[in-house]
Design goal:
Elements (H helix, E strand, L loop, with lengths): L1 H13 L20 H4 L14 E6 L3 H13 L2 H6 L3 E12 L2 E11 L6 H22 L5 E6 L14 E2 L43 H19 L3 E9 L11 E8 L5 H17 L1 H9 L7
Helix pairs in contact: 3-5, 6-7
Length: 297
C-alpha cells in the first residue's frame, strides 16, 4: 500500500499526461525478506545487509554539468509552459572533442499538441533554437556547441518517422527500462568515470549499503573538494562487509588530483578528517535518505 501510494504520487508529480489510475497496472511483488537480513533491523547497531562498494567523485566536469543542466531545463516547469508539446521522456548525450561540445537529445513529443507533420518540425526547430541558446550560455569554456534533436526523424516517412507519443514517454510503447540502467546517483551516466553496478532506487535507506555508500561517497567527495584547499579532483571509494556496522566500512579510500604546488602531506589530515566526520554522521545521512531529501537519479 505504501509503495503503490508513493508510485502514484511520483507519477502525478512528474508525468503530466500519465493517469496512474487508468494507464498503469501496479503489480506488487513485495515479500518478506530472509530472516538473517531482516534481523539486522532488530539489532542495536545497524549492520550492512551486503558486501558491496560505492564510489563517488567531485567536481562534475563542465560536460557533465551541461548535460545535467540541459535535461533539468528541458523538464522544468518553465520549459513545459513554453513548449507543452515536449514530453518528459528525455535523454541527453554529451560528447566533447577538444573545446567542441556536441549534445544529442532524444525528446518525446506529445501528439495532442501536434496537429500535423509540419507542426512537428516547426516546434522541433523552435525547441532546438531554445536549447542551443541555453547550452551555449551554460558551456562557458567551449569554443563551439552543436545540438541535435531526435536524429532518427525522417519527414519522408510521415508520422512513423517522428518521435511522437500520447503520454510523453516511450514507456507507452513497451520501452519501460529497468532499475539500475538509468542515471547514476549524481544524475548522469559518465562512461569515463569510476562507477559500480549497484542500483540505488527502490532499496532501503537504513542498511542497504549499495544505496547508502554510493550516495555517501559522492557526498564525501563533494565536501572534500569544497572544504580542503588545493584539491583539483577527488574520488572516494567505500566498501562494506555484510553484518558489520555501516559507519565502519572495511575500506574508505580517497584518490586525489592536487593543484601543482600542493603536496599530499598538505591535504591528507584534512581529507581524513572529512571522511571520518561523514562516516560518524552516517545515521543522520540515512535519515535524510529515508525522508526523501536526497535524489537517487
Amino acid at each position: 500500500e505504501i509503495a503503490e501510494a508513493a508510485a502514484r504520487q511520483w507519477l502525478r508529480g512528474n508525468l503530466r499526461f500519465v493517469d496512474a489510475e487508468n494507464h498503469i497496472v501496479f503489480q506488487n511483488e513485495i515479500k518478506p525478506g530472509s530472516p538473517e537480513l531482516t534481523d539486522i533491523f532488530a539489532r542495536e547497531v545497524i549492520g550492512a545487509n551486503d558486501t558491496s562498494a560505492g564510489v563517488g567523485y567531485a567536481p562534475l566536469s563542465e560536460t557533465e554539468e551541461v548535460v545535467l543542466a540541459t535535461e533539468r531545463y528541458l523538464n522544468s516547469t518553465s520549459f513545459k509552459a513554453a513548449f507543452p508539446e515536449a514530453g518528459e521522456d528525455i535523454k541527453v548525450m554529451g560528447y566533447r572533442f577538444g573545446r567542441h561540445l556536441t549534445l544529442t537529445v532524444a525528446l518525446a513529443f506529445v501528439d495532442r499538441f501536434i496537429p500535423d507533420l509540419k507542426s512537428y518540425f516547426d516546434r522541433k526547430a523552435a525547441i532546438h533554437d531554445e536549447v542551443q541558446i541555453f547550452v551555449t550560455r551554460e558551456a562557458k569554456t567551449m569554443e563551439a556547441v552543436t545540438v541535435d534533436i531526435n536524429t532518427l526523424d525522417d519527414p519522408e516517412r510521415g508520422e512513423g518517422g517522428v518521435y511522437l507519443t500520447v503520454l510523453g514517454t516511450s514507456a507507452e510503447g513497451g520501452d519501460g527500462g529497468q532499475v539500475g540502467r538509468g542515471n547514476r546517483v549524481n544524475g548522469v551516466i559518465a562512461f569515463n568515470r569510476p562507477s559500480t553496478t549497484e542500483a540505488a532506487a527502490g532499496k532501503n535507506p537504513v542498511s542497504h549499503v549499495g544505496k547508502i555508500y554510493n550516495l555517501l561517497s559522492h557526498e564525501i567527495a563533494g565536501k572534500v573538494y569544497r572544504e580542503v584547499p588545493g584539491i583539483r579532483e577527488v574520488t572516494v571509494w567505500l566498501c562494506s562487509q555484510i553484518g558489520k556496522p555501516i559507519d565502519r566500512p572495511l575500506m574508505a579510500v580517497a584518490a586525489l588530483i592536487l593543484e601543482p604546488d600542493v603536496g599530499l602531506e598538505d591535504v591528507q589530515p584534512s581529507v581524513a578528517a572529512v571522511i571520518d566526520r561523514e562516516l560518524a554522521g552516517i545515521h543522520n545521512f540515512t535519515q535524510r535518505l529515508a525522508q526523501g531529501e536526497l535524489a537517487v537519479w
